[in-house]
C-alpha cells in the first residue's frame, strides 16, 4: 500500500508548518473567506471525507469552528463525546483512537488534557491528526487564525497587502507558562516577523525563556502598553492564583487585567485580542473587549476559514505527491 | 520567460522545452478581437453579459476580452474571476495547487456568462467551473471561450469561441501567456509520461 509508505500528514505543532507553511495556510484561508461571503457558502472539495472531532476536554468554540469548517467543505463530521463514550468505562486513549481510526475516518481533530497527546495519537492512527489543544503544549489552529486576524487588521490599517507581520509588536499577557495558546502564538507570530513580548507574574512566565523567539519577558504590563501594536490577553484561571502567589483574581486584575483605565495607556489604535472564552471583569474589561480596536469577534469569525484551509491542506492533497504529474489545466 | 510567468502555479519543477511558437502576441490580439466580435454577434449585443476568467491562466485574457467588448459596445462589461480548485474531480489524487480567491462581483442569476480559459484540454476544468458558477447564481446561459483548443476531451464539453484549434500529442504541453502560445514538452515527460492514462501526462 502506498499509504503505509507515506509520512502521516498531521498538524500537531506550529513547527510542522514553518514560516512558508504558515504563509500558505494564510493565503489559502483567503479563498475560504471568499467562500464564506457567498450566499451559498459551501464547496464540494472534501465530499466523501470524514472528520471526527474527539474532545477529551470541554470546548465549545473550537469544536463548533472545526465542525463548521468541515461541513462547509462537504466533509461528514463525527462528534465523539468522550464523557459519554467507553473512555468512561476505562477504555484506554489508544483503544479509543484506534477504534475511531478503524471506522475509516480521514481526520481526527483532537483535544486532550495531556501535553503530547496529539503527537502520540499521530503515531497510533492512519488518519490525519489535527491538534486542537494538548495540555500545555500547543493549539496550532488558534495561532493560525490569530496570525490571519492580525495580518488582516494590519492590511486594513495600512491599506496595503502586507505578506507577514514584520515588525508588529505583540504583547501576550497572562498565564504564559501553562498556556498552549501562548506557545503556539509565540512560534507562529515570531515566524512571521512579529516582535513578541511576554507579560505576566513571574510564576506564570516560562521557567526559562531561553530558546523562545521573543523580545522580552516582563512583569510590568504598564511599561509595555505604549509600545505595543497588539495586546493579546489570555484567559486566567482561578486555580492558578495560588501558583502565582496572588490571593485572588481581583489581585491579578489589579496588576495584569486590561481594565478601561489601563487600556488608556495603550498606543493609539493598538488592537486587543483574546482567544476566548472571556472572563469579563477579570483579565479584560467589557468596554475594552467590545471596543472599536478589539479583534476578538474577527478571531472567532476567521476560525472557520482558517480551519477550512487546514483541513483542505491535509485532506485534499495527493497521498503520494511525487507520483502525480501534470498541472491540472485543461 | 513564459515559464517564469507561470511558475508559482506549478506543482512540479521539470524544465519546459519549447518546440515551436504557434501564436505571437499579434496573433493573440487578433484572435481576441475576433472572439469579442463573435460574442457580440452571437448575443446580439452585450446586454446581461458577464465575462468570467478561470484562475489563473484565463484571467489576463478575460480581462482583455472585457476591455475589447467595452470598446466595441460602449458598455462596461462586468468582469469576474473564478477559482475551480475546490470543485475539481481529482482532489486527493494530485498535489494541491495554491489557489486564488474567486472574485465574482455580481449575482449571476439571469446573466449570460462567458467563461474564459487559456487552454481547453480534457474538459475537466470547465466541468468544475460549471459547478462553481452555479454557486454564484443561476445564469441564463453559459458560453465558453478559449485561446487554444488542443483536443483530447474526456467529457462532453465544447467551446463556443476558439482562438486557435491546435491538434497536439498527449505528451506535449501547451504554454499560453500574453506573450504567445508555445508547444513543448516537460523534459522527463518524454520518457515517463503514461500516454493515454488519465492519471498522468502533462495536462
End-to-end separation of chain B in angstroms reads: 20 Å
CATH topology of chain B: Rossmann fold
Relative strand content of chain A: 5-15%
Structural class of chain B: alpha/beta
**How many strands appear in the DSSP assignment of chain B?**
8
| Total DSSP helices of chain A | 12
What percent of residues of chain B adopt helix (DSSP H or I)?
A: 25-40%
| Biggest sheet features of chain B | 5 strands, parallel
* Shape annotation of chain B: globular
According to CATH, the fold-level topology of the largest domain in chain A is Rossmann fold
Annotated CATH architecture of chain B = 3-Layer(aba) Sandwich
Main β-sheet description of chain A: 5 strands, parallel
- Using the CA coordinates, give the radius of gyration of chain B: 17 Å
Give the SSE map.
The complex is a heterodimer of chains A (330) and B (203).
Chain A: H1 2-5, H2 18-36, E1 50-55, H3 61-72, E2 76-81, H4 93-102, E3 107-112, H5 117-124, E4 128-134, H6 140-158, E5 169-173, H7 180-191, E6 195-199, E7 216-218, H8 221-225, E8 230-233, H9 249-256, H10 260-263, E9 271-273, H11 286-289, H12 296-315
Parallel strand pairs in A: 1-2, 1-3, 3-4, 5-6, 5-8, 6-7, 8-9
Chain B: H1 2-6, E1 16-23, H2 25-42, E2 49-54, H3 59-73, E3 79-82, E4 112-120, H4 124-134, E5 141-149, E6 161-165, E7 173-177, E8 180-186, H5 189-192
Parallel strand pairs in B: 2-3, 2-4, 4-5, 5-6
Antiparallel strand pairs in B: 1-8, 7-8
Helix pairs in contact in B: 2-3
Summarize the model shown.
The complex is a heterodimer of chains A (330) and B (203). In chain A, the strands form two sheets. Chain A has a five-stranded parallel sheet with strand order 7-6-5-8-9. A four-stranded parallel sheet of chain A has the order 2-1-3-4, with helices on both faces.
Amino acid at each position: 500500500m502506498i499509504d503505509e509508505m507515506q509520512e502521516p500528514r498531521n498538524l500537531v505543532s506550529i513547527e510542522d508548518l514553518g514560516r512558508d507553511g504558515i504563509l500558505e495556510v494564510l493565503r489559502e484561508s483567503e479563498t475560504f473567506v471568499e467562500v464564506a461571503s457567498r450566499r451559498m457558502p459551501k464547496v464540494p472539495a472534501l465530499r466523501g471525507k470524514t472528520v471526527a472531532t474527539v474532545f477529551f476536554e470541554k470546548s465549545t468554540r473550537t469544536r463548533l469552528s472545526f465542525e463548521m469548517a468541515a461541513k462547509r467543505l462537504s466533509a461528514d463530521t463525527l462528534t465523539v463525546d468522550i464523557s459519554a463514550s467507553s473512555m468512561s468505562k476505562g477504555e484506554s486513549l489508544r483503544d479509543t483512537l484506534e477504534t475511531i481510526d478503524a471506522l475509516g475516518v480521514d481526520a481526527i481533530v483532537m483535544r486532550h488534557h495531556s501535553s503530547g497527546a496529539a503527537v502520540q495519537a499521530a503515531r497510533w492512527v492512519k488518519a490525519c491528526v489535527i491538534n486542537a489543544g494538548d495540555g500545555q503544549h500547543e493549539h496550532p489552529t488558534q495561532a493560525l487564525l490569530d496570525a490571519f486576524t492580525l495580518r488582516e487588521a494590519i492590511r486594513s490599517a495600512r491599506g496595503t497587502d502586507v505578506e507577514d507581520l514584520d515588525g508588529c509588536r505583540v504583547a501576550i499577557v497572562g498565564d504564559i507558562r501553562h498556556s498552549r495558546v501562548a506557545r503556539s502564538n509565540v512560534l507562529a507570530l515570531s515566524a512571521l516577523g512579529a516582535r513578541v513580548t511576554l507579560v505576566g507574574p513571574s510564576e506564570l512566565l516560562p521557567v526559562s525563556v531561553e530558546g523562545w523567539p521573543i523580545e522580552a519577558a516582563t512583569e510590568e504590563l504598564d511599561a509595555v502598553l505604549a509600545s505595543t501594536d497588539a495586546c493579546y490577553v489570555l484567559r486566567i484561571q482561578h486555580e492558578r492564583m495560588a501558583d502565582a502567589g496572588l490571593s485572588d483574581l481581583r489581585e491579578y486584575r489589579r496588576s495584569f487585567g486590561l481594565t478601561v483605565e489601563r487600556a488608556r495607556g495603550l498606543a493609539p489604535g493598538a488592537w486587543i485580542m483574546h482567544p476566548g472564552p472571556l472572563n469579563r471583569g477579570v483579565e479584560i474589561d467589557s468596554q475594552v473587549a467590545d471596543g472599536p480596536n478589539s479583534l476578538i469577534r474577527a478571531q472567532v469569525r476567521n476560525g472557520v476559514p482558517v480551519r477550512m484551509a487546514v483541513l483542505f491542506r491535509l485532506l485534499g492533497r495527493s497521498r503520494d505527491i511525487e507520483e502525480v504529474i501534470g498541472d491540472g489545466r485543461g | 520567460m513564459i515559464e517564469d510567468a507561470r511558475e508559482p502555479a506549478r506543482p512540479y519543477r521539470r524544465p519546459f522545452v519549447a518546440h515551436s511558437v504557434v501564436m505571437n502576441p499579434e496573433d493573440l490580439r487578433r484572435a481576441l478581437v475576433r472572439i469579442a466580435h463573435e460574442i457580440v454577434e452571437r448575443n446580439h449585443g452585450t446586454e446581461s453579459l458577464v465575462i468570467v476568467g478561470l484562475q489563473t491562466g484565463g484571467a489576463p485574457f478575460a480581462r482583455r476580452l472585457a476591455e475589447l467588448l467595452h470598446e466595441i459596445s460602449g458598455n462596461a462589461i462586468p468582469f469576474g474571476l473564478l477559482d475551480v480548485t475546490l470543485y475539481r474531480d481529482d482532489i486527493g489524487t494530485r498535489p494541491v495547487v495554491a489557489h486564488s480567491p474567486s472574485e465574482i462581483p455580481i449575482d449571476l442569476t439571469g446573466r449570460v456568462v462567458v467563461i474564459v480559459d487559456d487552454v481547453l484540454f480534457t474538459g475537466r476544468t470547465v466541468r468544475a467551473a460549471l459547478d462553481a458558477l452555479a454557486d454564484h447564481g443561476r445564469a441564463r446561459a453559459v458560453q465558453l471561450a478559449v485561446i487554444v483548443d488542443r483536443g483530447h476531451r474526456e467529457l462532453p464539453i465544447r467551446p463556443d469561441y476558439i482562438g486557435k484549434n491546435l491538434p497536439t500529442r498527449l505528451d506535449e504541453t501547451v504554454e499560453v501567456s500574453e506573450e504567445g502560445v508555445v508547444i513543448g514538452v516537460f523534459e522527463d515527460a518524454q520518457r515517463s509520461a503514461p500516454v493515454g492514462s488519465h492519471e498522468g501526462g502533462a495536462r
